[in-house]
Please model this.
Amino acid sequence: MSDQSHALNYMNYLAVDELLSLQRPVSEGPEHDELLFITIHQVYELWFKQLLHELEQAQRQMAAGDTQHVLATLNRVKAILAVCIQQIDVLITMTPLQFGAFRARLESASGFQSAQFRELEALLGRRDGRFASHLLAQHREKVEARMQAPSLWDSALRYLNGCGFTIPAEILERDVTEHYVSDARVREAVLEVYRSGHQAGLVCEQLVDIEVSLREWRFRHVMMVERTIGTKQGTGGSSGVGYLSSTLQHPHSFPELWEARENF
Ligand code: HEM
Model:
């Protein structure tokens, strides 16, 4: 019989033993609900990883002017975000009392410190170094690298220009480390995209959907937080619900796509 110990199988290909050893409760007992709390956060981090992977792919496909594949990739991003939103249903089966039984053991741990979430925000155009300042150096560097690279909207504008909808050169060559400022000429180009019936208009709508999904996630997260801890401070040190509600007002990732709606 051949030696099976090195042959690829389900367990070693997916590193299942390692994966299942990574849920490490810190509470006494441990508290029953802590496993769900850890599992759901880890699942989110895996989806964040996949989202970054897919969005990078979308940027490459935009650079290649490959509309069909851009649409397919953004569609996948939307589907993953839908799962991220729906997963909150699982978390809210944990009552405030059940969470309270181990919350103190979390010390200062908080989603606030999710480096991949900050990378996602940066990829979607956030250019505010403060939100990464509390991360460890190796994580902060990754977020900073995202803020130094073109955002998804920068890539989309280059793509639209490549499709024949003129975007001013100064915008295409802008300093991508700076916060993007909406421009009337881009708004005109976007209107032209929509009116022309070009498939690039579908790409623009997918981008709007993605921004809406992220805001929906933020909204569901803040409602879940309020029903679980009320107006208590966050373990990450913020005011909690007050702070999270303010993030619902973050600037648009694709400002001219929103402004264009006033002109239809
Ligand atoms: C019982 C469950 C949860 C509670 C009570 C909770 C509470 C909070 C609070 C209060 C904050 C504000 C920062 C702070 O002071 O800590 C926060 C931020 C955050 N949480 Fe949660 N959270 C929960 C579950 C989750 C889950 C499952 C995720 C998924 C990854 C998550 C991701 C985040 C992220 C990314 C932030 C930063 C948001 C921003 O700064 O825009 N949270 N959370």
